[in-house]
Amino acid sequence: MSNPGKPLDFFWFIPTSGDGPYLGTDDGHRAPDPRYLREIATAVDRLGFGGVLIPTGANCEDSWITATALATATEKLKFLVAIRPGTASPAFYARIAAALDRVSNGRLLINIVVGGAPRELAGDGIFLEHDRRYDHAGEFFDIFETLARGETATLHGEHIRAEGAKLHFPFVQAPRPPLYFGGSSDAAIEFSAGRVEKYLTWGEPPADVAEKVARVRKAAAAKGRAVTFGIRLHFIVRETDEEAFAAADRLISRLDDETIAAQQAKFATESDSVGQRRMSALHGGRRDNLYVAPNLWAGVGLVRGGAGTALVGSPATVARRLKEYQDLGIDTVIGSGYPHLEEAYRVAELLFPELGLAPKKAEVIVGDFGTGARPKRITGLAAAV
């Protein structure tokens, strides 16, 4: 169970497939240049975010190399990095994960990604059907966990064979970094119940999240385990609700109906993800009724696969909505916004104080800009960042 008196652990997102101020268009597009990704990481590290999610996929810069580069440029930030079983052996992943844990001085978190589009998975040499991928992942992590404990791993499994595998350089975190996972199918929930520390859901309406949390808790309890919960959401936070609603409209203002139809058809035909089907069902590909719960806006999912909803509103409004999720057991938020650099500042400066996450106030001396006035003392977030 989450501690309702404890502030949320708030993460951000590193957009390794690109960024920009509009969805569904190249207008204002920002390539995932390493310098730009470093700007985002150093900003959120300074602003007080707890960590960042780095996505995985054929259209993303490699998550492990990116995380290693960003770890050397940051101080406190944790890195939630994906392991996709089948793209490499468990022994290989154990070695690179342990190396990154050492490079970052124990700031690695591991995100297990089993699902995905079959066509993309085929490009990585993975040809298993949906539920069989979880059987494969079970064997993968049997070996991975054995190595993390410092033991020699041998397995002649249905999917994986390993003989005498060893991990010679251990993790900083003992026996290994925490495991995160998200998946909505029965096979996914059964897998997560026996393996992970934190279960992640995409931003569905609170009633749907409550149902999913209950299913995961029941499955974990049946295995004598308990898991904690996180939620993946986009954020559009402005000083007033009206300004936030206008910003949401602006985000899809250059998105045409043909692009929406093409993306929705792609999701329907190329993905076997139960979570993706649940996301798409929220809006049905229509842009005329995107608020699927109070302040929960599904416009992102018109063209973006995966997490497709945003909380939209003033700081007080969004904080109330997050409290609803927190009351269900959510203790971690993985946020994002377009563009990710500017929206990280808005979330930190506007929303964090409402969530009890404001950085410690610092005092500095500044002059009035452009007036030549005598310098004065100020305190607050601007001073801290």
From TrEMBL:
<keyword id="KW-0503">Monooxygenase</keyword>
<dbReference type="InterPro" id="IPR011251">
    <property type="entry name" value="Luciferase-like_dom"/>
</dbReference>
<comment type="function">
    <text>Catalyzes the desulfonation of aliphatic sulfonates.</text>
</comment>
<feature type="domain" description="Luciferase-like">
    <location>
        <begin position="10"/>
        <end position="331"/>
    </location>
</feature>
<keyword id="KW-0285">Flavoprotein</keyword>
<comment type="similarity">
    <text>Belongs to the SsuD family.</text>
</comment>
<keyword id="KW-0288">FMN</keyword>
<dbReference type="InterPro" id="IPR019911">
    <property type="entry name" value="Alkanesulphonate_mOase_FMN-dep"/>
</dbReference>
<keyword id="KW-0560">Oxidoreductase</keyword>
<dbReference type="Pfam" id="PF00296">
    <property type="entry name" value="Bac_luciferase"/>
</dbReference>
<dbReference type="GO" id="GO:0046306">
    <property type="term" value="P:alkanesulfonate catabolic process"/>
</dbReference>
<dbReference type="GO" id="GO:0008726">
    <property type="term" value="F:alkanesulfonate monooxygenase activity"/>
</dbReference>
<protein>
    <recommendedName>
        <fullName>Alkanesulfonate monooxygenase</fullName>
        <ecNumber>1.14.14.5</ecNumber>
    </recommendedName>
</protein>
<dbReference type="InterPro" id="IPR050172">
    <property type="entry name" value="SsuD_RutA_monooxygenase"/>
</dbReference>
<dbReference type="InterPro" id="IPR036661">
    <property type="entry name" value="Luciferase-like_sf"/>
</dbReference>
